[in-house]
Design goal:
The protein contains five helices and three strands, in the order H-H-E-H-H-E-E-H. It is mainly alpha-helical. 14% of the residues are buried.
Amino acid sequence: MAPRKAAATHSYAGLDRVLHEKARLSILTALLARPEGVLFPQLKALCDLTDGNLARHLQTLNEAGLVELWKNHDGPRPKTLVRLSGKGRQSFLEYLAELERVVREAKAHSAEARRGRGELPPGWQPA
């Protein structure tokens, strides 16, 4: 994780865009809780995504090395099992730690703001 610049304390560089997108966050959360993997239709239902939407997000995650896609052609229809890769598990846990840091920081700033409202100098008006 790259160190944060003092002047850009709220840029949150540790919140990787590949992981931070809402649907991918849902997918990774579902997979983190199920190390044995999840079949495509179950993952689709867990994340409330369409076939195409889930397939596209899985492609992005797979290209980044974060998930593994396993195929089984036993039976009338092929099945796809999705699992979090070792890199994906580590990356997602680091992402969650950074997100927790963001939340702690926001709460601390909120507490500071409640203590001293930060009144504006004379002359300022709503835009």
